[in-house]
Design goal:
448 residues; alpha/beta; D-Maltodextrin-Binding Protein, domain 2; Extracellular solute-binding protein; signal; SBP; lipoprotein; membrane
């Protein structure tokens, strides 16, 4: 794996800060600082030799998918080991293995967490293994989210383009159609509230939803310069979104009591109290948990802001090659097949319930037809496929993404006591700058 200088890391949009998971390595030998960085690019295994790769992931039944590859590639065999979801313990397990000089060949790593793994030299730069030849198979926006400092540190696996799920029968009660802009959405939400329902839920604890709204509006919270970071969390496009939801929450047009997909939310949705839901493509499977919901929901494009894009992303993972892999070339080959071939994508959907395909040329055969649950709508091809192509390509993750989400959530909780989301965003920006400074990172506020 290539050793990256401080200047390269800063230029590539990284820095030297560590998130909560990476901080667990304190006092341990950081992987890649000596032996890993000193190793040359590893050549492929010789002809006739059998390679066995290990892959740690939290996807269910992933071995069934790997077995398709195994049957076709007898000299490169892949064994799956299940780990908890990233922040539920999977990342800690990976960091501990890396610190011990071990770990799997491959791991499921969320795209927003790649910078943290890179800060501990935990990932292989796949550009050394000619990964550029495969770039055209993947969505360019997502390819950008795994690329730093001229290197590529993961193969995009899935994402979550956003749209609006809605109940056409409940909208019809107030004489409304799916709104095309957020301004129209607010008007419909007022009519819905007068009818005793809520248009949607606005989670105060899960700030990834607010982040996705800001992303859609065209905000870019972080950008890297030659000598450090520029932060613009409290820029005008983000504050526009915050002012909008300040008013929406103050007027009671959304509920803040139920987190989407929580037991309380499922109960409210089953009782015809939730009219719509702005969420990701993977929300279709979760909606099936609403009692009596089959045939009653539809999908429409997300309402748009005056500036920005037609959609945004909620979630997204990569298949990364870990620093101590003895066979990075073969690991990359498997990762590319898994996440770009029709066979791999279809098997991931059928067995593992993977999110949206990162190959724009193959959304997955199971997703091409009509859906009985959504009343015969071809919602994937009609809504999510265009949404996946209308994204904020300038968005960039940063080394303390999860910590920033936590800071923002702490501030947002004050909204339940009458505080302002606008003020919360401004304070969160300042707190994030302070965290960067304590980690020895240079950061400045964008000019406004």
């Amino acid at each position: 794996m290539t050793s990256l200088s401080r200047r390269q890391l800063l230029r590539g949009g990284l820095g030297l800060g560590l998130g909560a998971g990476a901080l667990a390595l304190s006092g341990c030998a950081v992987p890649g600082t000596t032996s890993v960085n000193a190793e040359p690019t590893r050549p492929p295994a010789g002809a006739g030799k059998t390679v066995t790769l290990t892959y740690w992931a939290w996807l269910k039944d992933l071995q069934r998918v790997a077995d398709i590859w195994n049957a076709q590639n007898p000299h490169i065999q892949v064994e799956i080991a299940w780990i908890p979801g990233g922040n539920d313990g999977g990342y800690q397990k990976l960091y501990s293995a890396l610190a011990a000089g071990a770990g799997p060949d491959l791991a499921q790593v969320e795209m927003h967490t790649i910078p943290e793994f890179l800060m501990v030299n935990g990932l292989v730069d796949l550009s050394r293994y000619d990964v550029a030849q495969h770039e055209g198979r993947f969505d360019p926006t997502l390819w950008g989210q795994v690329s730093f400092a001229g290197g590529v540190y993961g193969i995009p696996q899935d994402s979550g383009p956003t749209a609006m799920y809605y109940r056409p029968d409940l909208l019809e009660e107030v004489g409304a159609e799916p709104p095309q802009t957020w301004e129209q959405w607010a008007g419909v939400a007022a009519e819905v509230r007068q009818a005793g329902m809520h248009m949607d839920s606005f989670p105060l604890a899960d700030t990834s939803v607010f982040t996705a709204h800001a992303m859609q509006a065209g905000a870019t919270w972080f950008q890297a310069e030659e000598e450090g970071w520029v932060i613009d969390m409290a820029g005008e496009r983000t504050l526009e979104v915050a002012r909008f939801f300040d008013e929406i929450v103050d007027d009671g047009l959304v509920t803040t009591q139920h987190q989407p997909y929580s037991p309380g939310w499922f109960a409210a949705a089953a009782n015809d109290q939730i009219v719509s839901l702005a969420s990701a493509s993977w929300g279709d499977a979760l909606l099936s948990g609403v009692s009596g919901a089959e045939g009653r929901w539809r999908v429409a494009p997300l309402p748009t802001w005056p500036t920005g894009y037609g959609s945004s992303h909620l979630g997204g993972s990569s298949t990364a090659v870990l620093a101590h892999s003895a066979h990075p070339h073969e690991a990359m080959e498997f990762a590319v097949w898994l996440n770009s071939s029709p066979e791999g994508i279809d098997a991931l959907i059928e067995n593992s319930g993977i999110g949206w395909s990162t190959n724009p040329d193959h959304i997955g055969t199971p997703r091409e037809g009509a859906s009985e649950f959504f009343g015969g709508q071809h919602y994937n091809t009609e809504v999510f496929e265009p949404a996946a192509g209308d994204q904020n390509a300038d968005w960039q993750w940063w080394p303390i993404t999860q910590q920033t989400f936590n800071i923002l959530a702490d501030e947002f909780r004050g909204k339940a006591r009458g505080a302002s989301l606008v003020d919360a965003v401004v304070r969160a920006e300042q707190s994030t700058m302070e965290v960067f400074a304590t980690k020895g990172l240079t950061i400045r506020r964008a000019e406004r």
